[in-house]
Write a structure and sequence with these properties.
The protein is α/β, with parallel strands linked by helices. The protein has a single domain, classed as 3-Layer(aba) Sandwich (Oxidized Rhodanese, domain 1). It has three helices and three strands; from the N terminus they run H-E-H-E-H-E. Strands 2-1-3 form a three-stranded parallel sheet, with helices on one face. Strand 1, helix 2 and strand 2 form a beta-alpha-beta unit. The radius of gyration is 12 Å and the shape is globular.
Length: 76
């Protein structure tokens, strides 16, 4: 899937992510394996491994993320 043609997905900069988080409009989702998250992660990030997202066919359960925020996924 090409990110540029899907309005639901958008690549943003770290600065843009920080602005969204600081404004209370975004939340960081760490898409790495949970043991990597447990070892170290960005402050305030929620663990939601890509393997779990893929197992749910891309659906994110409502109780796993704040419903009123943009989801900012990172894996590095």
């Amino acid at each position: 899937m090409n990110q540029d043609t899907n309005e639901a997905l958008k690549r943003i900069t770290v600065a843009e992510a920080r602005l969204l988080i600081d404004a209370g409009r975004g939340v960081l989702l760490d898409a790495r394996d949970r043991r990597l998250y447990d070892n170290a992660h960005a402050t305030g990030a929620i663990s939601l491994p890509l393997s779990e997202i893929e197992a749910a066919n891309g659906a994110v359960t409502p109780d796993s993320v704040p419903p009123d925020r943009l989801l900012i996924l990172y894996c590095a």
